[in-house]
């Protein structure tokens, strides 16, 4: 599952850079993932956080943090 999460992270990065190059408002991406994280926590009552290692995809919070990290690089495009 770690390989699957790594591939999703790479795919997120490529998509993020393509969106930045296409003049899409990339500042909304981390906000969307944070919103999804809040909704998931409400729906799953803590399951998302406590069983992260069972997931094939990174946690929403993790994806939001990754996008924030890529923001400066993407803005150069």
Describe the 3D structure.
It is built from four helices and no strands. It has helices spanning 2-21, 28-44, 47-50, 60-76. The longest helix is centred in the first third of the chain and has 20 residues, at 2-21. The protein starts with a helix and ends with a helix.
Poorly predicted regions: none
Count of alpha/pi helices = 4
Give the topology string: H per helix, E per strand.
HHHH
Q: Tell me, rounded to a whole number, the average pLDDT.
A: 83
Provide the helix percentage. over 70%
Q: Tell me, briefly, the overall form.
A: globular
Q: Roughly what fraction of the amino acids lie in strands?
A: under 5%
Number of strands: 0
CA radius of gyration is: 13 Å
Report the end-to-end length measured between terminal Cα atoms: 32 Å
Helix vs. strand class = mainly alpha
Summarize the main sheet: none
């Amino acid at each position: 599952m770690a390989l699957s999460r790594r591939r999703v992270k790479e795919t997120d990065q490529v998509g993020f850079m393509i969106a930045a190059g296409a003049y899409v408002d990339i500042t909304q991406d981390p906000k969307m993932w944070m919103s999804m994280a809040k909704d998931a926590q409400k729906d799953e009552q803590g399951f998302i956080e406590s069983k992260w290692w069972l997931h094939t995809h990174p946690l929403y919070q993790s994806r939001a943090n990754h996008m924030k990290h890529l923001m400066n690089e993407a803005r150069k495009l």
